[in-house]
Specification:
The complex is a heterodimer.
Chain A: H1 20-24, E1 40-46, E2 52-58, H2 60-63, E3 68-73, H3 74-78, E4 102-103, E5 109-115, H4 118-127, E6 129-134, H5 141-144, E7 160-168, H6 180-187, E8 191-202, E9 211-217, E10 222-227, H7 232-243, E11 250-253, H8 269-281, E12 285-288, H9 291-297, E13 301-312, E14 318-330, H10 340-346, E15 356-365, H11 379-397, H12 401-408, E16 417-418, E17 424-425, H13 430-441, H14 443-455, E18 459-468, E19 485-491, E20 497-501, H15 510-522, E21 529-533, H16 550-577, E22 584-587, E23 590-593, E24 596-602, H17 603-611, E25 625-630, E26 639-648, E27 655-665, H18 672-691, E28 722-726, H19 744-761, H20 775-792
Parallel strand pairs in A: 1-12, 10-11, 14-15, 20-21, 27-28
Antiparallel strand pairs in A: 1-5, 2-4, 2-6, 3-5, 7-15, 8-13, 9-10, 9-12, 13-14, 16-17, 18-26, 19-20, 19-25, 22-23, 23-24, 26-27
Helix pairs in contact in A: 10-11, 11-19, 13-14, 15-16, 16-17, 18-19
Chain B: E1 7-10, H1 14-23, E2 28-31, H2 37-42, E3 50-53, E4 63-66, E5 69-73, H3 78-83, H4 85-90, H5 92-99, H6 104-109, H7 112-118, H8 125-132, E6 135-140, E7 143-148, H9 149-152, E8 153-155, E9 158-159, E10 165-172, E11 178-184, E12 191-202, E13 205-214, E14 221-222, H10 224-230, H11 237-244, H12 262-285
Parallel strand pairs in B: 1-3, 2-3
Antiparallel strand pairs in B: 4-5, 5-10, 6-7, 6-10, 8-9, 11-12, 12-13, 13-14
Helix pairs in contact in B: 10-11, 11-12
The chains are: A alpha+beta, B alpha+beta.
Bound molecules: flavin-adenine dinucleotide.
Chain lengths: ~800, ~290
């Protein structure tokens, strides 16, 4: 018998993503590929004004059109669909899936058409006439807080949705605030940095926009809903509640999902409306968002203003931080809207042992698209504000930005570290990541290069930033739907392995990483393992994919379920081999007695025996399938250091990134190739925010960036070659030691790129720049200086 | 992003396309690469009921040189212009401008004729056509007509092209010492400002120069004041820099949008005029 090659261990290897061939070849099944006989299509009539009262809606022309099944106004929908729930414990105004009497942003739905195809539906929606009484709109959150220009919701005076909510040093659990420590810090300071900073609004822009198919079967009294969602189980919970069905009667399926970036966590009005109309009309219903709608109707991200103050001694020791945050959340609270900016407070401690911190948060309604989670969800904003302030302090003290950081780090022996903001950082070694990044980038040489370029009159700058963020979201006390994950592992009769996971990948590569883990655990080839996800009828329970929790929480559940099945399989194998179960090795597609390779039984033979156990070993039941719930005791806190170099064209103001170094520490890596892919994508979006992305509105609330002709997404040609490296500081909170990496790239990159731009323009006395780095803005700074210089001369 | 309903027809020749256009009455529209028209249709800003596809008409695409002039078929894609060995050798400015259009997907579909007929104020080719003093060959039901580039562009999205005419080809005398310099709008990649400069230099002296500007205002134009300032002068970087200082002075109705203010555009006209002139001069040596 030929000896098979020994299967290599796969965890830690750069295994190519198994899901890519089908996706690249266009063979994936997305929501829009779902077709059901008799299916009808929805089109929403949306408000084209930012704020107004609906006087009347004339839908007669639309109803008379060929192919139109029905047209519903918001008032009619409200007869059978409750206001939309949110997923945070904060106060929220009534929010109807389709507006009943008032529209509050451009894109707010006012009516919905059900028709035989998309075209007929769109034509009919265009034929609906809505008469509005326009109301003044407010788009600036600080103006909104005066309540003078417009009030969006009667029960929220001055448009304040939440706050001011204090947190940090001296804030008691019941909200009592003692400012002594923070005030003392500022009084003792030699230097105080203070700056208003804007973290601008972004459009998440997944390549697949949203979509939903709802199919209610009256005979079964059951609903199947396909949706481009990051969390089908949460979708099931919310939809079943809204439809008055038990969760046992709702099956939610997230088929192939073409990106989400946080925006597909939310359960949207279109999903509720499609489900409710399918039930009401007894017809399958599809709605596919088009790109123009996506810019208006899919949640936006970020949009925070912060007034940041940093108190320090001349030697660079930071004494205290104040951060007053104003979050522009748009017109309504969505699922997680209110919670996202609280993450920015939570991460105010950053990587530093600041002695005192006061953060406050006020959330404000404006006549814009609602915000919600977007890659990083609150952590990039926190990292940006704190790192910008640290950068300004370094400049003020003429210290190397790396050395200022080093002086203030939380030290490795301080972990687990309880921050002023209530977080407990699991593990960390920030100096190691900093030193690695300085080494990889050649920091000293880069400084020399910058100085030489400067001497030639070129505008070249260097930026560095640290970050720490929250991943692996759990336990349940931190996450309203529950902070656990679920997995079921089954060794099939033929020895193949099927596993389910409650995390619902949409680009994270779990079909590969999870298969790597099981292949190693059971000693079988990778292609003998299949990972099932995204269907609540197949995956019994789950929470979903967000907050970089797939590997740290979902992976741990998978590991635990696999461990249970393996233990049972070992018992069957022990019976077959007449050995003790603890003496077995699972390797190379066989199970053998340790040290006796000749004893090996094919894995499939043991599996077959478990399903037809003659004789059934004592104390065992047939079959090889088991499940596990895993709830971590804490979040994980990955960290890193990013470094960027930038040159700004003196004549045009165009910024060009010439170097981007990212050193990230996500703990143990299951698949470094996939990790790099996640970081590349994260860097692209972080660079996008720093340099070219921005959702803009006119003063009247009209969107000015409602297509990719005006909303700039970065292209590969905008980037230098990314230089990545990592350090490994495992987390103790899960058995894998893995922390999570989905958002890291967006968090570390943004502040260091802005720091590089500020450094490039520091020759003109620039201390801070707001994002994004619009060439004209940079050009004006250069121009003002050059004209002043010629005036001096 | 859902267009209104339309019929689709495919033309087999210029005459066939003209006949189909006539048959459609006012409701027909030619489609070549579709990269200006289809976006408008998806936004329902254009609602033709008949589309006549001219992209497959034989000999509608192609680049050749005859009698000292270059001829480019209107159906030639931006990509084919960008990679043309003939243009790269004889008139590199054309290939350079084509390569700066949008992205690869756009260049694979979009055509020279479509770009010129549509005349987006931020399109790249018009500046080059002005700098090369190109001839536009139009075919209508009543036969052929030739229009100079300078007369073709008349204003915001307005060109000298009747609804029953097709732009069939463009001809021009190749200029090696010509270059295109462009400030990209970072979302669309269209020109915030684009300048094409074509030089004729003898014994170090500029005997003639034509400079075409796009992106800055409602329609492309020649920078005649700069041309006048340079003609007869020595072709030096210093002369270019000085002359570029008055570029854009006469340009009215500067565009203004979220990407660039009028002030910035005016300043960029100067920068990119100088860069285009420097680029053109560099090609004399090369
Ligand atoms: C994302 C994106 C980025 C772009 N970036 C740039 C850029 O940076 N620079 C730039 O210059 N352009 C840019 N464009 C526009 C692009 O170059 C278009 O391809 C071009 O403007 C139109 O050519 P077409 O063949 O696609 O024309 P079509 O869209 O097919 O037609 C455009 C119009 O011209 C008419 N037409 C077409 N051909 C003829 C003809 N031979 N005779 C008479 N009428 C005709 C049509 O009826 C229609 O009205 C961009 C487009 C997109 C979508």
């Amino acid at each position: 018998m030929a000896v098979a090659a020994v299967l290599p261990k796969l965890v830690g290897q750069r295994v190519k993503r198994r899901e890519d061939p089908r996706l690249i070849q266009g063979r994936g099944t997305y929501v829009d590929d779902v077709k059901i006989a008799g299916m009808q299509h929805l089109a929403f009539k949306r408000s084209d004004i930012a704020h107004g009262r609906i006087r009347s809606i004339d839908k007669s022309a639309a109803e008379a059109m060929e192919g139109v099944e029905a047209v519903f106004t918001g008032a009619q929908i409200a007869e059978f669909l409750d206001p939309m729930p949110i997923g945070t414990p904060f106060p929220s105004p009534e929010h109807r899936a389709v507006a009943v009497d008032t529209v509050r942003f451009v894109g707010d739905p006012v009516a919905v058409v059900v028709a035989c195809d998309r075209y007929a539906a769109r034509d009919a929606a265009d034929a609906i006439e809505v008469d509005y009484e326009p109301l003044p709109a407010v788009v600036d959150p600080e103006a909104a807080m005066t309540g003078q220009s417009a009030v969006l919701h009667a029960d929220f005076p001055n448009n304040v949705a939440l706050g001011p909510l204090p947190s940090g040093t001296g804030v008691g659990r019941k909200g009592a605030v003692d400012d002594t420590a923070v005030e003392a810090a500022f009084e003792a300071a030699d230097v105080v940095i203070s700056q208003r900073m804007v973290n601008q609004r972004l459009a998440p822009s997944s390549i697949e926009a949203r979509g939903v198919v709802a199919h209610y079967e009256p005979g079964r009294e059951a609903l199947t809903i396909w949706s481009s969602s990051q969390n089908p189980h949460i979708l099931r919970t919310f939809v079943s509640r809204m439809l008055g069905l038990g969760e046992d009667r709702v099956r939610a399926i997230a088929p192939e999902v073409g990106g989400g970036f946080g925006a597909k966590i939310n359960i949207y009005g279109e999903e509720y409306v499609a489900a409710a109309l399918s039930k009401r009309l007894g017809l399958p219903i599809k709605w596919i968002e088009d790109r123009s709608e996506a810019f208006l109707a899919t949640v936006h991200g970020r949009d925070l203003i912060a007034y940041v103050e940093l108190a320090a001694r001349r030697d660079g020791s930071v004494l205290g931080l104040r951060m007053r945050i104003i979050a522009d959340i748009g017109a309504y609270n969505m699922l997680l809207t209110a919670g996202v900016p609280t993450n920015s407070m939570t991460m105010a401690n950053a990587t530093y042992a600041f002695p005192a911190i006061r953060a406050t948060l006020t959330e404000v309604f404006t006549n814009k698209t609602p915000t919600d989670a977007y890659r990083g969800a609150g952590r990039p904003e926190a990292a940006y504000f704190v790192e910008r302030a640290m950068d300004m302090l370094a400049r003020e003290l003429a210290m190397d930005p790396a050395e200022l950081r080093r002086k203030n780090f939380i030290q490795p022996d301080q972990f687990p570290y309880k921050t002023h903001m209530g977080a407990i950082y699991d593990s960390g070694d920030y100096e190691k990541a900093l030193d690695r990044a300085l080494h990889v980038s050649g920091w000293e040489a880069l400084k020399a290069e910058r100085d030489a370029a400067r001497a030639d009159g070129r505008l070249v700058g260097l930026g560095l930033s640290m970050y720490v963020e929250i991943c692996g979201m759990g336990p349940s006390s931190t996450l309203p739907p529950g902070g656990w994950e679920h997995s079921q592992v089954t060794v099939e009769r033929d020895g193949r392995i099927s596993a389910t996971t409650g995390v619902s990948p949409h680009g994270q590569g779990n079909e590969t990483t999870f298969a790597q883990m099981l292949a190693d655990q059971f000693g079988v080839p990778l292609d003998h393992v299949t990972i099932h996800h995204g269907d609540t009828a197949v995956v019994k329970q789950g929470i979903g994919t967000f907050g970089s929790r797939s590997q740290a929480v979902g992976g741990a559940a998978l590991h635990d379920a696999g461990t249970k099945v393996k233990a049972k399989m070992a018992k069957f194998a022990a019976a077959l081999l007449e050995a003790h179960e603890s003496d077995l090795v699972f390797e190379n597609g066989t199970i053998a007695v340790k040290g006796a390779p000749a004893s090996a039984k094919p894995f499939a033979e043991v599996a077959a025996y478990a399903y037809r156990p003659i004789r059934l070993p004592e104390g065992l039941t047939p079959g090889l399938s088991d499940e596990a719930f895993f709830e971590p005791k804490n979040n994980t806190y990955p960290f890193g250091c990013h470094i960027a170099m930038m040159e700004i064209d003196r004549e045009t103001g165009e910024p060009r990134l010439s170097k981007m170094v990212a050193v990230d520490d996500a703990g143990h890596l299951i698949n470094p190739l996939i990790v790099e892919g996640q970081i590349h994508g994260g860097l692209a979006q972080g660079i996008g925010q720093a340099m070219i992305e921005e959702v803009a509105y006119g003063a009247d609330g009209q969107p000015l960036t409602a297509s990719f002709m005006d909303y700039a997404l970065p292209r590969a040609s905008d980037f230098p070659r990314f230089e990545l490296d990592n350090t490994v500081t495992p987390t103790p909170v899960n058995p894998l030691g893995a922390k999570g990496v989905g958002e890291a790239g967006t968090i570390g990159s943004t502040p260091c790129i802005v720091a590089a731009a500020v450094d490039a323009l520091s020759v003109f006395g620039v201390r801070h720049l707001d994002m994004m780095l619009r060439p004209e803005k940079l050009w004006r700074i250069i121009q003002d200086h050059e004209s002043a210089r010629s005036f001096d001369a | 992003m859902i267009s209104t309903a339309f019929e689709y027809e495919r033309a087999t020749s210029l005459d066939d396309a003209l006949a189909k256009l006539a048959a459609a009455g006012g409701a027909g529209k030619l489609i070549a690469g579709g990269h200006s028209l289809v976006p408008l249709m998806k936004l329902r800003l254009s609602e033709p009921t008949v589309l006549i596809d001219i992209a497959n008409i034989p000999d509608f695409a192609g680049i050749r040189e005859a009698d000292g002039r270059i001829e480019i078929g209107a159906g030639t894609t931006h990509h084919d212009v960008a990679i043309s060995a003939l243009l790269r050798a004889r008139c590199p400015v054309m290939a350079e401008a084509a390569a700066a259009i949008g992205d690869q997907q756009v260049r694979n579909r979009g055509t020279l004729g479509g770009s010129l007929a549509h005349a987006d104020p931020a399109a790249d080719y018009p500046a080059v056509m002005l700098a090369l003093d190109a001839d536009f060959h139009l075919k209508g039901t009543n036969g052929w007509r030739v229009v100079k580039a300078g007369d073709f562009f008349q204003g915001m999205l307005t060109v000298d092209l009747a609804p029953d005419e097709i732009l069939a080809k463009v001809t021009f005398a190749p200029v090696r010492a010509a270059a295109y310099a462009k400030l990209h709008q970072r979302a669309s990649r269209f020109a915030i400002v684009g300048v094409a400069a074509a030089l004729a230099v003898s014994d170090g002296t500029i005997s003639s120069v034509r400079i075409g500007l796009t992106g800055a205002s409602s329609s492309p134009s020649r920078l005649e004041n700069v041309e006048a300032a340079l003609t007869g002068r020595d072709a030096t970087a210093g002369a270019f820099s000085a002359a570029a200082g008055i570029a854009g002075d006469g340009v009215e109705d500067l565009n203004e949008d979220i990407h660039a203010s009028a002030d910035y555009r005016r300043a960029m006209i100067r920068v990119f005029t100088r860069r285009a002139l420097d680029g053109a001069l560099a090609r004399i040596a090369g």
